[in-house]
Specification:
alpha/beta, DNA polymerase, domain 1, 2 domains, two-stranded parallel ribbon, binds S-adenosyl-L-homocysteine
């Protein structure tokens, strides 16, 4: 089966021609999918019925079916649970900001990275998401809310660089001038630190922002909370980050989940400062979201501010991420787990 919405414009054109159709049919189809965000082939009024029938037989037309929608009364954040064709459930978040709407998407159903504080990884990896399934999270949210999406962060369930080819395809499609034409600069990809893949991503020469989930400043501590740290040392990651910056000119972001008593000491401030300085990174502090199955707790607001101020004294560019949608299920992956009936009450 041909996965229509995952095809690049060139691939779609080749495919349509292989069916004995005229080339302009490919343009029409592409526009229906990626500009009008058509929810089905039947919506495509200017395509011949015979072609639509053929496509229905030979192709997959990916749509994200909304299974749940939760709207925060506090800040307008909306969390969506989407059902995929095979019944897999995935989570996406819509966040309205003054400067535009942001959507956080999942890149995999489940995750195999095993970070100790993260809910998304508890059931392991089920499968990769296709490029179409990544796009559809944004398209479906646009259809449902009627709002334009101006920023996309690949920070939901899954490790995007563990699904590398589909991720790259997704970025190409989302930024294609004949599709949504989103600027590459409005896309952020977050990784737990697969060093070789960071090097490969740099070679794509995208203008996207790369966020590295650092969370600890020594290899020893990082290994305790992130199993991936057994494969790549912090030194290797810093080298990959420097390479990414040199090749793309894009400044790296470090994500640092503050966990009380684990990574919030003065020594951590100093270690984080010197790592951030070494690659010119911006630091994003995220007070850890408590997950039912884990015992990690965030420092209180005042302690988090103290940590931030100390970084600033070291001339590090730092922000604390505002927690959004707290009233509609905190941390990543929790909604999906709840829907699967897996989360312990
Ligand atoms: N796998 C990628 C992207 C998904 S996780 C990555 O590791 O970056 C997105 C971000 O949320 C990561 O920085 C991750 O470490 C962080 N995160 C996961 N669980 C969290 C929690 N309970 N509280 C705060 N941040 C969390």
């Amino acid at each position: 089966m041909t996965d229509l919405k995952s095809l690049t414009r060139e691939e779609l054109t080749d495919y349509i021609i292989s069916l004995g159709e005229k080339k302009f049919r490919a343009s029409q189809l592409y526009e229906w999918m990626h500009v009008h965000l058509a929810g089905s082939l039947d919506d495509m009024t200017n395509l011949p019925a015979t072609l639509k029938e053929r496509l229905k037989q030979e192709c997959i037309y990916t749509v994200a079916d909304m299974a749940e929608r939760h709207i925060s009364k506090e800040d307008g954040t909306q969390k969506f649970l989407f059902s995929m064709a095979d019944g897999q459930m995935i989570e996406s978040v819509f966040m309205p900001y003054k400067h535009g709407n942001s959507v956080c998407i999942s890149s995999q159903a489940g995750c195999r990275m095993g970070c100790a504080f993260c809910a998304s990884t508890i059931g392991g990896l089920v499968r990769n998401l296709t490029a179409a399934e990544m796009l559809e999270q944004i398209y479906a949210i646009t259809r449902i809310t009627g709002e334009r999406v101006s920023n996309v962060v690949v920070m939901g369930t899954g490790e995007p660089l563990d699904n590398y080819d589909n991720l790259v395809r997704f970025i190409r499609l989302l930024t294609d001038e004949k599709g949504q034409n989103l600027s590459q600069r409005s896309i952020t990809v977050s990784t737990c630190g697969l060093a070789e893949k960071i090097g490969r991503l740099a070679e794509e020469h995208f203008q996207i922002t790369l966020a590295l989930s650092l969370h600890a400043v020594t290899d020893e501590k990082r290994r305790q909370i992130m199993p991936v740290a057994r494969s790549y040392s912090i030194a290797q990651l810093m080298e990959a980050c420097r390479g990414y910056f040199e090749t793309t000119g894009r400044r790296i972001t470090f994500e640092y989940s503050l966990i009380a008593g684990v990574n919030d000491t003065d020594a951590d401030v100093e270690g984080l400062s010197s790592l951030a300085r070494s690659v010119g990174a911006h630091v994003n502090l995220i007070p850890v979201n408590p997950v039912t199955e884990t015992s990690f707790v965030p420092p209180d607001r005042r302690q988090a501010d103290v940590f931030k101020n100390k970084l600033e004294k070291n001339h590090i560019n730092v922000t604390i991420r505002r927690s959004m949608g707290r009233d509609i299920d905190g941390a990543c992956g929790q909604l999906r787990r709840k829907s699967l009936g897996l989360e312990k009450e």
